[in-house]
Amino acid sequence: MKDVKDSALPDFDRLSDFPAGEQKATGINYKRILSRAVSNWYWILISLTVALIIAYVVNRYTTRIYPVRASIIVREGDENAGAKFLYNNALANPYRNFFNELYIMRSYPLLEEVVRQLDFSVTWFREGNIKTTEVYDPEFPVKIFPVKSHAAPYGRTMGFTIVDENTFYFEYLSEDSHVKGKRFEHLVFNDTVSVNGYRFFVKKNGVIGNELFGKYFVIQFVNPFSLAKQYSSRLSATWAEQGSSVVNLDVNGTIPQKEIDFLNKFIERYQQYDIDKKNAVATKSIEFLDKQLAIIGDSLHYYENQIEQFKRQFAQTDFDDEAKALYERIKSLEEEKLKINLLTRYHKYAEDYISRGEDFEQIVPPSAMGVDDAVLTNLVTKLTDIQFEIRLLGGFQNDNNPLVKQKKDEIRQMKKDILEGINTVRGSEKINIVFIDEQIKKLEEQLYRMPESERILIEIKRNYSIRENLVIYLMQKRAEAGISRASTTSDIIVVNPPIQSGEALTPKPIQNYLIALAVGLLLPFAIFSTVEVLNNKVQSREDIQQLTSIPIIGGIGHCEGEKNNLVVHNKPKSSMAESFRALRSNLNFFTGGQNKKVILVTSSISGEGKTFTTINLATVLALANNKVLIIGADMRRPRIFSDFGLNNEKGLSTYLSSMAPLEEVIQPTNIENLDLISGGPVPPNPSELLISPKVGALMKNLLERYDYIILDTSPIGLVTDAFSLMQIVDHTIFLVRQNHTPRNFLKTTDELFEKRNIKKVSILFNDIRKTGPGYGYGYGYGYGYGYTYGYGYLSKKGKEKNEGYYSD
Predict the structure, then answer these.
(1) Does 281 have pLDDT greater than 60?
(2) If we measure between CA atoms, which residue out of 349, 369, 371 comes closest to residue 360?
(3) Among 173, 154, 171, which residue's Cα sits nearest to residue 163?
(4) Rounded distance, CA 580 to CA 565, Å?
(5) Which of the residue ranges 20-24, 267-271, 533-537 has the most confident prediction, judged by mean pLDDT?
(6) How confident is the model at residue 52 (pLDDT cuts 50, 70, 90)?
(7) Which of 285, 208, 239, 231 is nearest to 108 (CA)?
(8) β-bridge pairing 708-712 and 628-632
(9) Closest Cα to residue 711, out of 692, 728, 736?
(10) Closest to 632 (Cα-Cα) out of 617, 653, 649
C-alpha cells in the first residue's frame, strides 16, 4: 500500500463529508485486499513464477502413465460345440457361467503364467541425473535368466554394464539401489555366472551395438506372483454393455508397448485356458477308455484263441437252430448285464474319486461312459468348473478370498448331492442284476441238456461276443472323445487388438499449468485475506463507519522527516499544514461558528497523535490571528512542553493545587498568539484535581483572554480523566490512528460516549499511510499538494524513530 505522500489528502470541507453512518457488523474488505494485492504485485509475480516452475518440474519428471485397451468376445459355449452338434457328444459341454469370467481374467495363477512367459520378472532400468527410467525392448540383445535350481534373486537389484561384444560385469547392489557393492568382472555371455550366491544364465541374442558399450543398467528381479498381484489390481475387465458378451480390457502403464505385449499374451493365454478347460474332460475320458480297452482287449484275444482251439478239436463252427436261439437269448441278457456292470463300475469310480479329496478337475464325466443321467452329468460338470475357478482364484488354501469360501461351500453341497444320487442308482442296479442272473441261470439249465460240443461252443462265443461288443462300444466313445478334443476351439475371440487408447493419463501438462496458475494467484490473495482477517487495527474510514456512529471530522496523512511536532510552524505551506487548515474549517461547522471555543483532544490509547494534533491544530488557529492556549491536561505523563523548549516546573497541577497563580503557569511559546499551560509536576491525585470547581472557573477566566483553548488529555481507554472535562468543552476530537487503533477499542469507546450521553464529539482519522480502494481515501481528493511531511519524534537518546509523533 502507498503512504500518503505525493498524493492529495481527503477533503472534508463539506458537511456531506461527515458520515454519521450507523454501526454495522465488520467483515472482510475485498477492496482493501485488492488494493494490497496491487501494491504487492511483485509477490504475486513471484508466487506465479514459483508455481509455474513447480508445474514444469512435475510435468518434466513425473512418470507418464499411458492407457492401453483391447476388446474380446466371450461366446456362448454351444456356439462352438461342434462335436455335440455333429455327433451328439455330451463331452462338449455348453455350460459357461459368465459371472465368473471377469474374476477368472484377473486371477493370480493366470496372470502369473503371463508374466512368466513374457519374462517380466527381470526389469531393466537406466539411471538418469534426477530419475530412473524403465527400459523395455523385446529385441534387446541381452537376456538374463535366473537358474531355477538355485535361490531366486527376487527383490534384489544389480548393476549391469556391457564391456564389449563378449564380456560384461555385474555389480551387486544393496536394498538401496544407489549404494553399490561388490563388482563381478570379466564375465562372458552365453554362460552361467554366480553373483553373491545367485546363479544366472546371461544369453546374447544377435549383435550388440557399440552404443550399448559402457552403458550402466540397473536390473531388478521381481517375484512373478507379486507382479501378477500388481497386474490383477491394474487390469480392468468390464462388460462393454449390459447383456453383451464383449469384454473391454484396460491396463495402464509407463511403457505402452509393454502393456500391449502383456494384453496380447494375456488374451493368448486366456484362449488357451478356455481350450484346456474344454479338453480336460475329453483327455481324461480318453485315458480312462484306453485303460478299459487294454484290459478287455486281452480278454477278447483269449476267447479268440479258444474259438480256434475248438475248431481244431471238434471241427464244428456252428450249432443247430435250438442252440442258436438259446445263444441269442443268453447273449442279449449278458449284454444288458454288462452295461449295468459298466454303470456300477463308473459309480464306484466316481464315489471313490469324490470321497478321496478335493481335486475334481480330472474326473471322468458320466457321459463319457454312456451313463444317461442328466442330473448326475450336470452336477459333475459344475463340480469340475468350480474346481477350475478355485484354482484360478489361488487354490483351496486361499481362505482369505470370500469367493473361494463360497465356492468351497458349493463343492461340499454338490459332493453330498452326487453321493446321494449314486447310492440311489446303485440300489436299482442291484435289483436289475439279480433279475438278469436269474434269467441267465434258467437258460443255462437248458444249455446243459444240449450236446457237450454245442454247449462249449455257445459258452465260448457268448463270452467272445460280449467282449467284442464292449470293445466296439468303448472304441466308439473314445472316437467321440477324440473328435471332441480335435474340434475344440476357444470361445474367446479378439474384437479389437491391444492398442494405446489415448494420450498420457498422467501427468496432464495443461491441467497442471492451470492449477499452478490458479494456486499462484490464489495463494497471495489467501495470504492477503488472512492478513486482513487477522488485522484487528482500524484500517480505513469504512472501518470507522462500521464500528461507530460518531461522525468523522477529517483526516491527517502520514509524513516523515520532521524532528519535532511543529510541522505547521516549520512548513506552513506544506500539504500537512493544509490538512490542519481543513480541520480548522471543519471544526467551525461542528461548533456552530462560536467566537470562543474549548476543544478537547483525546484518543482510546496512547501513541495515536494527540500531542501532535494539539500542537499543529493550535498553530493553524494562531496563524489565523486567534489567541490560542494549549493546556496539557495529561498530568500523568506531561511532555508537550518539550516540543516548545519550555519547562514543566509549574503547570496545571500546581495551579489546581493552589501552589502557583495563573500568571505563573501560562508560558508564551515561540509561535505568535500561542501560549501553553503544561501539565506541571505529576500530582498524586490527577483525577480529583480535574473534577474540582477550579477547573470550570479556570476555563471561564481563560476564555476572557483567548479565542481557543485546546486541551491535550489522557487516553480515555486507559483512564477516565478526559470524560470529566468533556462536560465543559465545546467539542471533543477523538483521534483514530490508521493501523494502530484496535477495532474493539473504537467500538468500546463508541459505547462509552453513548452511555455518558456525550454528543459534541467527532473522529479525526490520523496518520493515513495507505489510500485507495478499501481505505476510503482515493486519489483525486483534497488539495493536490505534491508532497507531505511525516511524523517522527526523538527518543530519550535523541534518535529518531519511525513511529512518528504518536507516543503520547
Answers:
(1) yes
(2) 349
(3) 171
(4) 13
(5) 267-271
(6) very high
(7) 231
(8) parallel
(9) 728
(10) 653
Q: What is the pLDDT of residue 313?
A: 60
Return d(Cα 567, Cα 585) in angstroms, integer.
18
Quick one: cell of 226?
507379486
* Residue 136 φ then ψ, to 5°: -130, 115
Distance between terminal CA atoms of the chain? Answer: 26
- For residue 273, give the H/E element and its range: helix 256-314
The residue count for the chain: 808
> What is the spatial distance between Cα 71 and Cα 498, in angstroms, rounded to a whole number?
8
| Rounded Cα distance, 726 and 739, in Å | 26
Query: What value, to the nearest 5°, has the Cα angle with vertex 239 and ends 260 and 387?
Result: 90
Nearest alpha-carbon partner for 120 in 271, 265, 270:
265
What is the rounded radius of gyration, in angstroms, for the C-alpha atoms of the chain? 55
Three cell numbers written together for 534: 487477522
Collapsed DSSP state (helix, strand, coil) of residue 753:
helix
CA 324 to the chain's CA centroid: 90
CA dihedral 188, 190, 192, 198 (to 10 degrees): 90
Measure the CA dihedral 695/697/701/707, to 10°.
60
Q: Which of 242-256, 640-654, 700-714, 739-753 has the lowest mean pLDDT?
A: 739-753
Give per-residue burial for 216-239: e unless 16+ CB within 10 Å, then b: ebbbbbbebbebbeebeeebebee
pTM: 0.59
With 0-12 CB in 10 A as exposed, 13-18 as middle and 19+ as buried, what is 363? Answer: buried
Q: Are 736 and 746 a contacting pair, CB within 8 Å?
A: yes
Mean pLDDT of the chain: 79
Whether the per-residue pLDDT at 625 is higher than 70: the answer is yes
Contacts of 617 (CB under 8 A, 6+ apart): 580, 583, 584, 599, 601, 710, 733
Q: 767 CB contacts (<8 Å, ≥6 apart)?
A: 556, 557, 558, 608, 609, 737, 738, 739, 740, 791, 804, 806
**94: CB partners within 8 A, 6+ apart:** 76, 77, 78, 81, 84
Residues 6+ apart with CB under 8 A from 294: none
Cα gap 127→157, rounded to integer Å: 13
Three-class HEC string of 206-241: CCCCHHHECCEEEEEECCHHHHHHHHHHHCEEEECC
Residue 682 is placed in which grid cell? 505529576
The arithmetic mean of pLDDT across residues 343-366, rounded, is 70
DSSP structure string for 10-38: PP--SGGG---PPP------HHHHHHHHH
Of residues 445 and 481, more confidently modeled: 481
d(CA 71, CA 251): 12
Helices (H), 68-217: 82-87, 98-105, 108-118
Cell digits of residue 323:
442252440
Cis previous bond, 498, omega within 30: no
pLDDT of residue 665: 93
Rounded to an integer, what distance in angstroms lies between the CA atom of residue 395 and that of residue 387? Answer: 9
State residue 721 phi and psi, 5-degree precision: -60, -40
